[in-house]
Amino acid sequence: MASKGSNAAGVTPEYWDDACKHLAKRDRVMKKLIPQFGEARLQSRGDAFTTLARSIVGQQISVKAAQSVWDKFAALVGGPSHRLSPAAVLALEGLTLRTAGLSARKAEYLVDLARHFDDGTVHVRQWQQMDDEAIIDELVAIRGIGRWTAEMFLIFHLMRPNVLPLDDLGLLKGISLSYFSGEPVSRAEARELGEGWAPYRSVATWYLWRSLDPLPVEY
């Protein structure tokens, strides 16, 4: 990987090995968990617009259904093998987008996303220099993107090392099973535990997700 936070397809974070050593030294659960997944790593794929569009398409439907809708949507706006462009989305009417199986609301969200990218409301080229919260503020101003989606974007696309997504049910479940013998965990307890993982909270989160589902998530 050329630089931390690079968004080229298929890259892995340069900090990963250092993060694993740090977490294994400081946390008894991580020391046991990390070796179970060998050389598996977080990977960033696709460009920013495509990644966020996929997150909108996939909201509140199954993975299989989301893939079907995505394939139709991608074909409408340039073909599944081509990088999607905001201009191509804006060139289509909402009714045309809905022929891909999108709800009226999701079609509106995708148009709003495209508009933010097309008019420069989101500062993609400055993101590498911006802190996490500043990027989250830009993203949640887009319809259909909440804090959880913005945090997933920080982890999976920008590969920021220290994100702790406290609204993520998988993270809370992983903490519950690995640290609290299955007892329910509050956000406050998860936040306190996560302080011990800094500055690599994204990496610890990724391994807890793996503890629930060995197949790596990709966006």
Explain this structure.
The chain has 219 residues and is mostly helical. It has 2 domains: 16-44 and 162-212, Endonuclease Iii, domain 2, CATH 1.10.1670.40; 48-156, Hypothetical protein, domain 2 (Endonuclease III, domain 1, Orthogonal Bundle), CATH 1.10.340.30. The protein contains 12 helices and no strands. The protein has helices at 16-26, 28-33, 48-57, 63-76, 86-90, 94-98, 104-118, 132-140, 147-156, 169-179, 187-195, 201-212. α3 (48-57) packs antiparallel against α7, α8 packs across α9 and α10 packs across α12 (201-212). The longest helix is centred in the middle third of the chain and has 15 residues, at 104-118. The protein is elongated, with a radius of gyration of 18 Å. The two termini are 18 Å apart. Mean pLDDT is 89; it is low at 1-9. Keywords: DNA damage, DNA repair. This is DNA-3-methyladenine glycosylase II.
Sum this structure up briefly:
This protein is an all-alpha fold and 219 residues long. It has helices at residues 16-26, 28-33, 48-57, 63-76, 86-90, 94-98, 104-118, 132-140, 147-156, 169-179, 187-195, 201-212.
Secondary structure blueprint with pairings:
Blueprint lengths: L15 H11 L1 H6 L14 H10 L5 H14 L9 H5 L3 H5 L5 H15 L13 H9 L6 H10 L12 H11 L7 H9 L5 H12 L7
CATH class of the largest domain: Mainly Alpha
Largest sheet: none
The SS-based structural class is mainly alpha
> What percentage of amino acids are in beta strands?
under 5%
CATH superfamily of the largest domain: Hypothetical protein, domain 2
Shape: elongated
Distance between the termini: 18 Å
Number of domains: 2
Uncertain spans: 1-9
CATH topology group of the largest domain: Endonuclease III, domain 1
Rg (C-alpha, Å): 18 Å
Classify the helix fraction into a percent range: 40-55%
What does the average pLDDT come to?
Answer: 89
Order of helices and strands: HHHHHHHHHHHH
Please state the second-level CATH architecture of the largest domain: Orthogonal Bundle
Number of strands: 0
Tally of alpha and pi helices: 12
